[in-house]
Amino acid sequence: MAGGWSWFTMDSCAADGRAGGAAGGGDGGPRCSxxxxxxxxRQAAEELHARIRRVMDRRGESYEIVLVNDGSTDGTGExxxxxxxxxxxxxxxxxxxxxxxxxxxxxxxxxxxxxxIVAMDGDLQHDPYDIPLLLARIEAGYDIASGWRRRRGDDFxxxxxxxxIANWLLAKVSGVPLRDFGTTFKAYRREVLQGxxxxxxxxxxxxxxxxxxxxxxxxxxxxxVRRRGGxxxxxxxxxxxxxxxxxxxxxxxxxLTRPLHFFGKAALLAIAGGGAILAYGFIRKLLxxxxxxxxxMHGPLMAVGFVSVIAGLLFLSTGLIGELLMRVYxxxxxxxxxxxxxxxxxxxxxxxRDTQRQEIDRP
Length: 363
Hints:
By secondary structure, the protein is α/β, with parallel strands linked by helices.
């Protein structure tokens, strides 16, 4: 298909893909990095860490676990720091405040050293035992292996139905036929992420952005575990944000390098409609010059129409131009959308006793 997109699921691509994945550990780093952002998930942190270790130890490959504390207030940061002190394969990234899931993932990606990067949530809704399924697709030659929650136990009206509609719209707009854009559980080749900067809620759209650059993407069915405690921060209120995200995805994936084509369509429609109205009024005035008062007969209606069209175009243009300027700013400068308080990574040598700390103070 166009854009380098390859559409397969785990069921149909077991024997497909290029031979051999990305070489791991060639630069002395681990083969795989597992990045997990946490926000007020203290009870799940230790169990998730233990599960990831069991899964990755069975694979027999070098790996690291990057745990990001996204400004938790329930003591999650202390638990994650203790895990980093006790396990040399854990890197703990502590953000100064709650920046959001996307920014926390970007902070983890920046610290990850693996040739393959796996991202997952920290609330135990993603089963670490599905990690080998994603890595198998990367080893088969795909650039991104995206999880697909085929069977979801969430409420139908408040979660599953809005999710299906949003995923269908996002697939149509982006041209990437994923059935589950919302899940964080994905595996990426490192080089795919090197040119991608995440902000806002963009982590859901990484496959769409990478597909524009020719990435080969595969969708893998994964388990969707029910939450043990707490409640999800996503609901029907998310619908409005998704509607705006659809416009953003369309702009980024199709019109990023030719924004005039995007704005030109609306401009032509506005000019054509406004010109037709003005021509109608001009002709009516010519035919009945003395007896027809254009502003008395149609003035309020035309004013409302013009104001509505101009206001809509201004709002849309301002939002999209702002999105473009933000991308240019963050991708052309060393600026970041997060600030790290400290990074804790124990020395990898077996006889190391001290924990390396790096105090970083960024604006």
